[in-house]
Design a protein that fits this description.
alpha+beta, Dna Ligase, domain 1, 3 domains, about 35% helix, D-amino Acid Aminotransferase, Chain A, domain 1, eight-stranded antiparallel β-sheet, five-stranded parallel β-sheet, globular, Rossmann fold
Length: about 450
Amino acid sequence: MFHRILIANRGEIAVRIIRTCREMEIETVAVYSTADAEALHVKLATRAVCIGPARAADSYLNLPAILTAAVETGCDAIHPGYGFLSENAELADLCAECGLKFIGPGGDVIRTMGNKAAARMLMRENRVPVVPGSDGPVRSLEQAAAVAGAVGYPVLVKASSGGGGRGMRRVDAPEELPGLYAAAQAEAVACFGDGELYVEKLILHPRHIEFQVLADSHGNVVHLGERDCSIQRKNQKLVEESPSRGLDADLRQAMGAAAVRAAQCARYQSAGTVEFVLDGSGAFYFIEMNTRIQVEHPVTEMITGVDLVREQIRIAAGLPLGMTQSEVRQNGHALECRINAEDPGAGFRPGPGTTRFLHLPGGPGVRVDTALYCGCVMPPQYDSLAAKVVVHAHTRLEAIRRMRRALEEVVIEGYPTTADLCHLILYHPDFVKGKYDTSFLERHLEALLQWEGEGER
């Protein structure tokens, strides 16, 4: 087992990893930018190293600085968390060259699954359903137009690299394609340094369902069930739950088997997530695989009792999975709400600032993952996630009621957050009934914000 792990990240995920390492009696090294000198992960780690100024490119994305810090502090491994360098194949390669273990899959796997077009081709070859679209990347606007015409509008033009909704455009008609194709390509180059695009049919009003998988170096692969991530803003998840009301037992089994098959054909090792869209007829399609821990991983931990970060570390150390598929148990229902430092009434504009007062919920079945404390700063340079409130209960209705209660206890003063919006979502009849899809916020946001305003009056 590892003696010391460097955590190449910040915020709540760095704190989350430190906690598991402490329980495993593994020392931790935090890295931080000058903007994060007083951050919680810096205070909790065994050691901390400043790796650069506030700009992410000069600190948390600075490969030489991170690797130097790991080597000089005598680390055995690097845990990348999510975001930043978590899906950076070069980091995985350089770790191997420096005698460090990258806690995640190998560089070749990251490259294959990080290229959405290549991943689609691999899945199709291994009988994992994919959304109808181009066979690999499109090389020209003319080729994109031919694919779109064949599968039928509306379509999505998507960047082969990256994620998070960047480099992606919805095209509803042929005359829109030239401008939106150029916009997607420009954004892909700006965000990922790669203008390669592919085209796929837009599945209207689907559910976004993802399956958590674990795979070790001994050929063992299991899935830990699904998470429904359909409540989204700007293609970013806001509320997640498990199990999904959109799946019955047969569909859950079929999608779980497809997720395992996807991990196997990718020769995957570590924790990962296979993401699908599910249409109204019950047909599901692979859209991508995230080769890292997910923001919403606590949902799965709450219903299975499996510490996913611990499993990542054990797998990286060469140990076999501690469970077989038949031993995986899912109990009750879990919900997660992301509390972002954003103003929903202003188009979810980020609102960084100083946390003047903080009160977080507790009680039975409530978990809060955060790096906040009174007086800490939410810097403008990084992601706006402030906290994740997660609840577990015996039934879905009990979980909804518990989450409502938990959100009513949240007090974060100093900047706007999405806490009140999440609270209102939990009262919406469509959410309570489980009858929602990825268009939920698009259709209901205006009414939800009006309810919030009426509540303030």
